[in-house]
From TrEMBL:
<dbReference type="InterPro" id="IPR050155">
    <property type="entry name" value="HAD-like_hydrolase_sf"/>
</dbReference>
<dbReference type="GO" id="GO:0008967">
    <property type="term" value="F:phosphoglycolate phosphatase activity"/>
</dbReference>
<dbReference type="InterPro" id="IPR023214">
    <property type="entry name" value="HAD_sf"/>
</dbReference>
<dbReference type="InterPro" id="IPR023198">
    <property type="entry name" value="PGP-like_dom2"/>
</dbReference>
<dbReference type="GO" id="GO:0005829">
    <property type="term" value="C:cytosol"/>
</dbReference>
<dbReference type="Pfam" id="PF00702">
    <property type="entry name" value="Hydrolase"/>
</dbReference>
<dbReference type="GO" id="GO:0006281">
    <property type="term" value="P:DNA repair"/>
</dbReference>
<protein>
    <submittedName>
        <fullName>Phosphatase</fullName>
    </submittedName>
</protein>
<dbReference type="InterPro" id="IPR036412">
    <property type="entry name" value="HAD-like_sf"/>
</dbReference>
Amino acid sequence: MPFPARRVVGAAGYFFRMGTHGTAHIVWDWNGTLFHDNTAIIGATNAAFAELGLAPITLERYRELYCVPVPRFYERLIGRLPTDEEWEVMDVTFHRYYTEHRIGCGLTDGVPTLLAGWESAGRSQSILSMYGHEDLVPLVRGFGIEAHFVRVDGRTGPSGGSKAEHMVRHVRALAGVEPARTVVIGDAADDAVAALHVGARAVLYTGGSHSRASLEGVGVPVVDTLEEAVAEAERLAA
């Protein structure tokens, strides 16, 4: 029987527990995966567009074209990269609107049960998000699910980039977790890129920022529910 993990509280709101060596591990994405915030995301995107006099887009259009780095997503929509000044205006507007409207969003269906089940089987899990760390930690705590995770990391530094280098630091900080037995579950192609960057596997979920069609070209398993994602993670990490 594995020894119980030990919880440690770190600086700047980081919280983590020592993992169990050799067990299967899930790195969860937050926005669009554990946290069902599509309505806040599309509303914030359209608020940012309005600052530049651009027409709003539908959620379906967003999910067809979304990519990182985020300025490239805007390029797909408006036909050019935004200028530095435009990017700053859009980024500030997006985050202001999102912060106001995220309070109406909740966890994806079934999340508490899935997290508890994975943990009770003696496996470990963590969160790595490109949402700002100082905002992420209290949000996770507010849903009462932090005890299920050995570590929670949000983005530090500028927004809009890839998750790959953040994943390197995240996995390196997970004591006792082997990349070969780690599966990243997220809703974006960038989650799979980040997983590959550290030698982990990935499962992509269709309920968030990308359409199924845009995910299927990535070359990793694509699922329609988080329950399916966890089952696939268990298979991949075996």
